[in-house]
Batch of 2 targets.
Target 1
Amino acid sequence: MNCWLLLPFMLGIPLLWPCIIAAENSKTEEVRHPAGSRLRIRRGWMWNQFFVPEEMNKTRHHIGQLRSDLDNGNNSFQYKLLGVGAESLFVIDERTGDIYAVQKLDREERSLYTLRAQVIDTTTGRAVEPESEFVIRVSDINDNEPKFLDEPYEAIVPEMSPEGTLVIQVTASDADDPSSGNNARLVYSLLQGQPYFSIEPTTGKIRISSKMDRELQDEYWVIIQAKDMIGLPGALSGTTSVLIKLSDVNDNKPIFKDSLYRLTVSESAPVGTSIGKIMAYDRDIGENAEMDYSIEDNSRTFDVITNNETQEGIIILKKKVNFEDQNHYRIKAKVKNPQVDAHLREYHTEASTTVIKIQVEDVDEPPVFLLPYYIFEIFEECPHGSSVGTVSATDPDQRKSPIGYSITRSEVFSVDDNGTIFTTNPLDRETSAWYNLSVTATEKYNIAQISSVPVYVQVLNINDHAPEFSEYYETYVCENAVSGQVIQTISAVDRDESIEHHHFYFNLSMEENNSNFAIIDNQDNTAVILTNRTGFSLQEEPVFYIAILIADNGIPSLTSTNTLTVHVCDCGDADSTQTCSHKDFMLSMGFKAEVITAILICIMIIFGFIFLNLGLKQRRKQTLFPEKSEEFRENIFRYDDEGGGEADTEAFDIAQLRGSAVMRGRKPRRPARAEMRSLYRQSLQVGPDSAVFRKFILEKLEEADTDPCAPPFDSLQTYAFEGTGSSAGSLSSLDSAVSDHDENYDYLNELGPRFKRLAYMFGSAMQSKN
């Protein structure tokens, strides 16, 4: 039962103080006010506040009563309520002071309302006491269930994790007052997820309770419930779901799908050919499923590589196979993961293996030579048909087809069906010391199967070339030469190849009965020629011929006779043969210069004749009179002469150009011949009145009239005056389009050959018009 007490005046001011009379069995106590008044309070709470439970369903719930100690019950006092919520949430009975809540109150929205109370004397209209402030507190009830604010929950944990491994922590929130009993005290429990997971009741931490294998199940849905009031009866609850995914670990080794693979390979397949594929599977995923294939016992013929994209093993040919040598193979392959953590090696103790059987397919192969190349030797000058050597090829296939041989592009050698190479022409080592041949072997059962082998033939030397002078010698001897004077040093060469170094022997021919010169062999493949007398005569015997024998050291030794020409020379005072050689050189150079000059002159004459010919032909092409079918065009000449200004009314009109020549209007005019003579006379009067100039002009006019080859567009014109004031008149034909319709152009025939073309043109036009 609630009531309000009126407190006596304190310090001369009457006070209005609210109080609550506790229900039965509630503990209260009285406290004496310092001023001597009594104030009743409830233990732990001040009595100037009201409590109202939230979510009351009554439309008008009584909260308490305000009453002044001056109120004598005669209804002369009026109680008023002021502050936030007054009149909207809370109302007061103006006569009795009873306070009511007229709406539902939600503590979670607002838990405290501060109001002011005032007492008015209705007879005077004035406040009996000052405003008194009091508090209305909304007491909490358990009307909010726990809520998980961070939904949805998702966690990832490695598979095969040990028990007790933390997965995730979930947290729920309760909007009720945590200080009001157990309304906001939560406990967590697991509704779904056993036996693999567990949850701590007070913290909400989810832990693993047993090992899980991702390959069996890769994700789990766990349902968590949170209850308030620590799970007591009447508690509210909320639930959430947690998706727990298992990440993969490398706990599975790769295993071959098949224990036996059968592959085939052609014996003609080149090295590196892919023969087939093998495949293993791994229950793991990602990097844990990467594989590494290998061949056991390190096969020399086959190998395997791993395709990192498809994780397949590709068997490739490491060495060429031969059906005739071995037609089948048996190898063993294994597979493993390239990267395995140390704590997971127990799952990879033994690698998976498979057997691969490879069958070699027989193909028709080309012939095979016994050697990769052949080198033969033969002496030069051997007779036709001499044997050089023999090549041999066989069919590697089982049928052993006969073989035919041939030599491509060779005119010196041939080969028979046995592979023996013969000469067809004599051989000369000095012409060619080596021959590079290509011998082709062809199967007679299948001519498409061919193969070739290089054959190198070396031509051996025999001494079949005699030595000779190494160069041509120009030898001179002075007329005043003395006996024993050296006039020439000679040497020799031999085209033969010598096993040892070449050595030549020099001597005068036995047939040479010449006491004029002598020879001395220097024993170093050179010799000197000396005079054997004193004095020579250029007039009596200008030239001497010396026959010299040169022998080599070959087996057998060959000797040749070489002639040395000696010219007698007038050496003069210099007493040296260099002057003779210089004279011959200058003589030859002079002869060469004369020849070159003559050739240049001939070339110039030829070019001049060609240019003259072209000029004459070009001139003949210019005809005096064109054919009737020739297209005539009107030429417009522009003269930069100054006009007569604004006074010149006969201005240029572009419209006049578009009129045809035959449409000209007729203008009164003098006869053309008389007009031309008049203009001519005026032009003569313009210049200096001199007979010399008059004669010159008349001569030029006569030349132009009588020259049939002169172009018709040359003319002599005189402009002595400007504008319309000129006595010569206007030379333009632009204003004649309206006056020349009936013009008679026969007078043009009387003006000479220069005007015949115009007469023909205008005469034809007039005839066409008529």
Target 2
Amino acid sequence: MSRHEIPGKKMAYQKVNADQRAPGHSQYLDNDDLQATALDLEWDMEKELEEPGFDQFQLDSAENQNLENPETADLNLDSIQPATSPKGRFQRLQEESDYVTRYTRSVPKSNPCNFCRLLKILCTAIILFIFGILIGYYALKKCPSNATSSAMLDLQLYQEILQTIQAEDIKKSFRNLVQLYKSEDDTEISKKIKTHWTSLGLEEVQFVNYSVLLHLAGPSASSVILGSSGQCFRPNGQPCSEEARTHSSQDLLYSYAAYSAKGTLEAEVIDVGYGNADDLKRIQKMKNTTNQIALLKLGKLPLLYKLSLLEKAGFGGVLLYIDPCDLPKTANLSHDTFMVSLNPGGDPSTPGYPSVDGSFRQNRSNLTSLLVQPISASLAEKLISSPNSRTKNGVCSPLELPDNDERIVNMQVQTVTKFKTVTNVVGYLKGLTSPDRYIIVGSHHHTIYGPYGQEWASSTAIITAFIRALMLRVKKGWRPDRTIVFCSWGGTAFGNIGSYEWGEDFKKVLQRNVVAYVSLHSPIRGNSSLHSMASPSLRQLVIEKNHFNCSRRAKCQETNVSSVQIQGDADYFINHLGVPTVQFAFEDIKALEGPSFLSEALFPKRATKIEEMDPFFNLHETITKLSGEVILQIANEPVLPFNALDVALEVQNSLKGDQPNTQLLALASRLRESAELFQSDEMRPANDPKERIPLRVRMLNDILQDMEKNFLVQQVPPGFYRNILYHLDEKTSQFSILLEAQERCKLLASNETLQEALSEVLNSINSAQVYFKAGLDVFESVLVGKN
């Protein structure tokens, strides 16, 4: 398939007769018809037996029933009169004294044999009744319900598929992949992945290429010169005069901020801490920040947001570092350099539209006016003149430049911009009954122009292991109900360029068809704790999988499943398509407890580092099986395993705070009521095979699939998610845009920003409440129409 063909054409919807009955045929309606037929027969028999004196008979019981059920009070019961009496039909006939004279038929004479005959019939009936009860009891005991048996069969199928995933196979695949990063041609790795996936049997594996603007490292490393001594240092703290150590030369080239301004700046260094609103407010009272150099710590807030505040404050340059106190003790990164990207997503030359042939290219060589240079912690210590040992009594002292000290620094940033080709590898496993509904599974591969960290090899080895296990079952004749799309993205390090361009290219198709996104980005970041990220609608499913599949090494806690901002290619699907997303990863406990957003730094990890964290690749196997079971369940369950009520509960929890907004709380309460009604009235029956109707299941899944789209807002601060259901980190539960607006009020005298944020949240909650209510109305209209 060529790149211009849309996935919808390749995965055209195939009509499948899941039910041979006429459309909309309902067993509820069948039951009503049977009851009405029985009622008519009973009425005809009664008319034959009634005497004329009872023509005007009205039932007290019918009136009482009408009073007890006011919802049916409008019904006209005169036209439907049950032919029964309080004493019973046949008892009433026997009590009539002139019963015999009223009818021409004679009463049968008494016969002694009749009693014996009736007794035999009664005994036979009792024996047959008891025998029937025993048969039914043992039959039900041995044969589970359809729902239970179906669920058990699915679970057994999933386990059979996942059992073929072995750690040793993942290890071999990982080692084969890391040998390819030395290739000078970026397409070499992409070709290897495509060939491997095709050999496993995956359908329609193809390249999707885009020519994009990349911001690359310069011919030589950037430098920082201390004004007081004139000493020159490289970003890792090494003197410029010394020969590069082994591997250092390559590392230094990738110590830069992609899409930063370039040039030279000599100015005073001002320590701004983490660069939040409080830090800037304090500093601006003491010093003139115009065209000065900020010494900034990474973490706690999105880097793009902090740079936007520094830019507005008038700074001209930024030296960016990670405080050693924020890292796990086992991480010795004092002399390590890193790369960051200042690109919010996609090709900067085509913002908001795909980089296809003929597209207009904007001139955006840099995305900020600031000169930004990442430096190691050891160089930050030299700038601050801090002693090497900053740990006393087991307590780490953060790096800090005294306010009254003055440091003059000359910083030089050298980078180049070039148009390069970024390649995505995309393969399909078409669904059997709903091929027009996609579950996207995303990993990423190495881009030769970027840093050569090895987490991409873990990501690619895991997705390949799952494809291998899945295709073994497909070769035996099985297929999932929905289509699974496997993607290996290119250009991730520069701002998720490959996934953004593909998403923008096929946006209309993806908006309609994508059900969920499963991210495999950087799955092994540590080895002490399993960290699960999930959209609110998928949280219950992920918690269930954690309970059943957690590794013995992992500390699996329910509180460890959260909806927080993450790095990687899931960004476009979360923030532009509103797609429910899930991601599993192993982390260090210290990293989870420390500041958020440290993962924005891309360190050049080597293969040996990954294998040190997971020498037997058991953690890789766990991630593969956890992700695989979630993929299988979403792709194969008749009703999508999404929880509407959890979305409403997340909204209510996000409004808790010191000064809750009563209007928002009232609206959130109505949203919860609608979600509860939707879940009980529509989702519960649909999950029972006896009550399941294909047409209504399809309508239900469409509602579940799109419900998170209501929480996409138009305007957010740089680096913040447009999907407000996701928090900045696990330590905050409030809506991130509200927290930021409150912080912004500290810098500005006006509260206009806060009012705008409140309006965005209010409109999102109202949209979701209307969405659920409209869904209920549609289901009710369909049911009434069938009646």
